Amino acid sequence: MANPPLYIEGIRVAGGETSQNGTALLSGEVTFGTGYAGSGATLATATGDLSIKGDLIVDGAASLGTVSVAAAGDISADGNLVIGGQMTVGGGHGASGATIASNGDVLTDGVVDVAEYIYVNGGYSASGTTIYGGAISAKGACAIDGALQVGAGGYAGGVGSTISAAGALSINGAAKLGAGSNHADFSSAGILRLNGTARAWEDLRIDPQIKATGAGQAAYAVWKTNYYLLAFPDGADTACYFTAQMPHAWDTSTDPVFHVHWVSNGSSTTNKFPEWNLVCRWAGINGDFDADISPSAVRVPAGKTIGDAIAADTHYVTAFAALDASAAGGDSISSILIGKLSRSAAPLDDYPDDVSLLYVDLHYQVNSLGSDAETSKT
Predict the structure, then answer these.
(1) pLDDT grade, residue 346 (50/70/90)?
(2) pTM for this model (two decimals)
């Protein structure tokens, strides 16, 4: 004869039986309250599914696989939370809430506040992305299909910045690129400044001039049949002259360096090099050309060492010591240099061949594209 239904304080077990160890074996169903159809709950034993039409109140803690529902109702997971359908937070995407679709896409009409961590693709340590307290750290690539707004409302809001879907970056304020003292700055007015190792070197190219003729003055002579260069013969004190203006891009806190580019008309295997001399005067706007500046020259050309031979028709460079811009009174943009370049006579110059001048240049460091004012620079 079949077992009759068992009633326990409002709980009805239909078509089941109780084993000797107290385990309930159910071939039918268990109804809680008035059952699923009546806003209660039903446990269908055929599949083990639990259907709840009303609220589920947890007074203690309940474990569902790797997901725990604590007494406060929070859900935490030591493992993965697999969602076959979609999860709706707040009113969902269409009601200023958020929706997590079954494919993992997150749609939100409101603001997503991150107080702790969100890991994407394993997080930062696994070449993914980590969001912590609103900050995004990405060890791998961070792909943004739409616009990314930083600050309150992004660039359009007047205080933040925006990266558009096309990758254009708009910054409404100052920006710094680089680390420590070596960086590039963009002011809120868009003015660029280069600092430390971010500064670049540039050449102020100077074409020497012949101011006089006769003894002691350099003159153009034929070189390689079809060309003319300023000649500086062996054994004679010979000079040429120049005038130069410092550019607006120059970092006036740095000291420029003169170089002489020259070529020998003969070959020498001796341990000797030509002796170049430079003297100049330097003044800024409304400044005085007070005194001569005579930086010392490095006798050995760049890339050569004592004992190296000098070959004919080869391009060599001789450098001078840096000019002290502040001491010379020329530490301002548009300052003017008036100079004289000469080759010494023997015995100071014991190089046994004639040389010809290719060019004179002044190496200087730049920290901007120009000056922020027409006649001054901050």
Answers:
(1) confident
(2) 0.60
